Amino acid sequence: MSFDGASVLVTGGSRGIGKAIALRFARLGAAKVAIGYLRSDSAAEATAEELRALGAEPTLIRGNVTADRVAAEVAALGPLDALIHNAATGVIRPALETEDKHWDWTHSANARALLSLARVAVPSMPAGASIVGVSSLGSSRVLENYALVGTSKAALESLVRYLAIELGPRGIRVNAVSGGVVDTGALEHFPNREAMLELGARNAAGRLVSVDDVAGVVTFLCSPEAEMIRGQTIVVDGGWSLPAR
Fold first, then answer.
1. Which of 36, 61, 163, 200 is the most buried (most CB within 10 A)?
2. Tens digit of pLDDT for each residue in 113-142?
3. Torsion angle (degrees, nearest 10) of CA 132, 133, 138, 141
């Protein structure tokens, strides 16, 4: 698998799964890797240095992924061979303890942002390019305190199906990757973090899903070998979601 000379954007690319995806593209030969991030300049700069060490030219796009300014900066990147929407946020509370503003914030960042980014990126994307949204098991399974994020990820997966059909004639593939429990900084916001880690390792593989497991599937979906995979959500959970519980 090679992405020699490719130009890639990874939202939420300064840490965790997004960082692993960005670095994997660089290792596979991508020439330009743009990463979007919200707050931590130090984390973004550290990732940029790692990208440079791998021979890729990094571009940092700081700000809320739903902002018009961020969309303008994405448009200014020029033709993208891969657009990965990994950035995610959300209010982790029981559904009845949330407010409308929490719903709007979560769904805008996790689902609507993919459409906003596609609007500005697709016109210049070449045939053979790919768009991938990073989802989670909460899109189809009920996880504690996950109502807002889970429904936003379900919306993301639905949007992926619609875009796959609409962009097919342009030669652009659209898919999603849904990871199991991954031990990243995002888990620190969950009150039941330790229980989730223990539960996530109870799968056929006998271990937690790693950031590299997810990154490997994302890059595969962006490769020519995945030409006939369209509008699908690929689950990477070690088989956790298979048994009836």
1. 36
2. 999 999 999 999 999 999 999 999 999 999
3. -40
